[in-house]
Write a structure and sequence with these properties.
disordered N terminus; Leucine-rich Repeat Variant; 15 helices; mainly alpha
């Protein structure tokens, strides 16, 4: 009887852990795909020299044995706008604790020192998905080409690889949406066009995430403008048809005039038909 009771206790415990674990995985997989934060970096970085001021103490705390203390130090340095914080935070991107690496990446994005862009790009491939998400935010926040190009071409771009992993795809989708939030629109259209291929993936989970991301373009700064531009400017009728279809699905109400023009005068009959269908889907 004792053995039977012990087995029941073990089985119930195992079943509870199993069900909770599956629920957590399901919640993670069903979470909406969103763009990542874009920080307003420091307008300029000071260069302090005191050996015992708040910045120096926070830098020293990055070596604390307690991971929580290291995270707090990185968060404090993110507000310091002090050049002295940059190299120690770059070192913290190799910390053994994920939360510390995330905090360091966020801090570097908020400081905005251009000298940290290339070292961050060099470490990007070594990080787990959670840290990469923080690094995408940081790199997108740096003014200029290099950081944002890394977001698009080293994170979002499949580069011909077959994508099947949910976590990998979610990171790529987040990078695409983040690129579409930037005032600098030079990377937006290329990012959106990656979704064209993802929507044709042989993997159902990748197609589903691509569809979520397409619909989320409605909440980005550049999504509508770029989809309209693809429909109006692409020399490839397949892409124009795709854009005409999705403009209606997404509900880009500001694209009504462009759809009317495409429905009336596009050189491809199928684009005309799809643009007319999309017009019907837009709210009156």
């Amino acid at each position: 009887m004792i053995r039977i009771h012990a087995f029941k206790v073990f089985f119930v415990g195992w079943l509870t852990v199993y069900l909770l674990g599956n629920a957590a995985c399901a919640n993670a997989q069903s979470a909406a795909v969103k763009s990542l934060p874009i920080y307003e970096p420091c307008p300029a970085l000071a260069t302090g020299t005191a050996a015992d001021d708040a910045v120096a103490k926070a830098i020293a705390a990055l070596k604390n044995q307690d991971a929580k203390a290291r995270v707090q130090a990185a968060q404090q340095l993110s507000q310091a706008c002090d050049k002295r914080a940059v190299d120690p935070l770059l070192d913290s991107l190799s910390d053994k604790d994920t939360t510390v690496r995330v905090a360091a990446a966020e801090a570097l994005g908020k400081l905005g020192d251009q000298d940290s862009v290339q070292p961050m790009i060099d470490l990007l491939a070594e990080q787990n998905f959670e840290v990469k998400r923080a690094m995408v935010s940081a790199l997108a926040s740096f003014p200029g080409f290099k950081g944002r190009n890394a977001v698009v071409n080293q994170v979002a771009n499949p580069s011909g690889a077959e994508i099947s992993d949910d976590a990998d795809m979610r990171l790529r989708c987040a990078a695409i949406l983040t690129a579409c939030q930037l005032k600098d629109v030079s990377h937006s259209r290329k990012s959106i066009l990656f979704l064209f291929d993802f929507l044709n993936s042989k993997h159902a989970n990748i197609r589903a995430l691509a569809e979520q991301t397409m619909l989320e373009l409605k909440n980005t700064r550049n999504g509508q403008t770029e989809m309209v531009a693809i429909m109006k400017q692409s020399s490839n009728p397949v892409l124009r048809r795709w854009a005409a279809t999705w403009i209606g699905k997404i509900g880009f109400t500001g694209a009504r005039e462009a759809l009317q023009e495409a429905a009336a005068s596009d050189s491809d009959a199928e684009v005309k038909r799809l643009a007319a269908e999309s017009l019907k889907q837009l709210p009156q």
